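quick q for whoever's on today - can somebody do inverse folding on this one?? i tried earlier but teh output was garbage lol. tokens:
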């Protein structure tokens, strides 16, 4: 291997280097029995982030209108509480938040079907903490979803 290949493998990351060495990781969601593309496939990170941005903007708007006119710190705190309640209620009942519905995503149990209330609550608490949502597995699921045995899919 020349220097350019060594530097290139370092820049592209360990997954790309392993794939270049012949390791087959499969596609996202293959281990969960989900299709590669289309409805029922793992939601891509861009859509997930977009849905989160829509949900957060909605919660900030509600917090501003109801509780914290002018006090930005209080508005952020209220928005987090509203986000938690909204996530528990909407994911627990219809399987998606308003942002997820807009971007055609749904949260389901690993084996399919709805999440139980306890798993929705666990997922929502961990999502509000923030750090677990930043740790992803090879299928693109955050630690909060992995611990709640949930997956976000396209609909």
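ok took a stab at it. sequence:
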């Amino acid at each position: 291997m020349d220097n350019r290949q060594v530097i290139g493998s370092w820049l592209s990351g360990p997954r790309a280097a392993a794939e270049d060495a012949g390791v087959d990781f499969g596609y996202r969601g293959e281990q969960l029995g989900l299709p590669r593309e289309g409805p029922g496939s793992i939601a891509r990170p861009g859509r997930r982030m977009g849905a989160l941005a829509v949900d957060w903007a909605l919660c900030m708007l509600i917090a501003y209108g109801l509780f914290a006119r002018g006090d930005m710190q209080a508005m952020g705190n209220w928005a987090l509480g509203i986000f938690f309640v909204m996530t528990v209620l909407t994911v627990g009942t219809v399987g998606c938040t308003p942002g997820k519905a807009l971007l055609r995503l749904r949260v389901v149990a690993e084996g399919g079907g709805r999440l139980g209330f306890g798993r929705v609550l666990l997922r929502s608490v961990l999502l509000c903490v923030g750090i677990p949502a930043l740790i992803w597995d090879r299928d693109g699921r955050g630690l909060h979803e992995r611990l709640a045995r949930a997956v976000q899919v396209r609909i």
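fwiw The beta strands are 105-109, 150-154. also Helices lie at 3-12, 14-20, 45-66, 72-93, 98-102, 117-129, 131-134, 143-147. so keep that in mind when u check it
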